[in-house]
Amino acid sequence: MSKIFLFDALREATDEEMDRDSSVFVLGEDVGHYGGSYKVTKDLHIKYGDIRVLDTPIAENSFMGMAIGAAMTGLRPIVEGMNMSFLLLAFNQISNNAGMLRYTSGGNFKIPLVIRGPGGVGRQLGAEHSQRLEAYFQAIPGLKIVACSTPYNAKGLLKSAIRDDNPVILFEHVLLYNLKDDVPDTDYFLPLNKAEIVSNGDDVTIVTYSRMRHHVIEAVNLLSKDNIYPEVIDLISLKPIDIQTIVSSLRKTNKLIIVEECMKTGGIAAEIIAQINDDYFDLLDAPIIRLSSQDIPTPYNGNLEKATIINPEQIVDSVKRLLS
User: Fold this and answer.
1) Counting beta carbons within 10 angstroms of the beta carbon of residue 137, is it exposed (0 to 12), middle (13 to 18) or buried (19 or more)?
2) Whole domain around residue 171: which residue ranges?
3) Model confidence, pTM
4) Pair 20, 167 in one domain
5) pLDDT (tens digit, 9 = 90+) per residue, 267-294?
6) Which end of the chain is least crowded, N or C, by CB within 10 Å?
7) Any idea which residues carry the catalytic annotation?
């Protein structure tokens, strides 16, 4: 095991897959000589050249379309969004082309495409750089969506995504790149459709993902002082949602809290609540609690920004309220 930063884990995954398979290449704004906004592609252009680590113009719709075309011919492109918010400019290409072409071509084309980059609420990045696009893309058929939360799952998920024959969006949180943790020195892969049980417990099930995993862990440490032991599930896969792992936990706890940084209206939590209420309502001893960001553009002001997203204290209060 080696203790490395999350951005280094992503870089290792990219390097290993590019070294193994010459059809893998990276494209995006400043991914080459600059090394990417968060240094995920640092120095890869030296090893692989300027064609396989391709700097593009500031034209998301154009280079996303080029990547999809490259995937149709048998290449395996990795598109880095300098900020995932900018990929709204390529929404048409991602939804109408990447998500649908394998189906509308009758299976004649595969789209082995990875779309990855920083997103989420950072520290005073302003509304346009603080988007959480998981809810935007969740409804698009044909996409797989995962969100990494640790260096370990970041590397394992990216390697699996690169080898998958379908378009995969990997969401990375802008505030997790400098998170450091153990990563195996041997080759490993993680499934793109499975949640992770972070900690076991019998009192309440807490479902979360991305940066909120760490807020939940902080809350669980506080709750343990009062002999309250939640079961924590990191979704990891946002599409498809691993509902069975959640249901297995609910059979023990019968109580559910969902913690997300996504907006409350139409977010990932809303989809989970709908599925649980549709098919597993009898497992619930109390209404599901949804802790989500405020439905407003993220303020630039630091104090106002903090007020829009969930904090560990709110999670602790919600657990105690639910158990009472």
Assistant:
1) buried
2) 2-183
3) 0.95
4) yes
5) 999 999 999 999 999 999 999 999 999 9
6) C
7) 60, 129
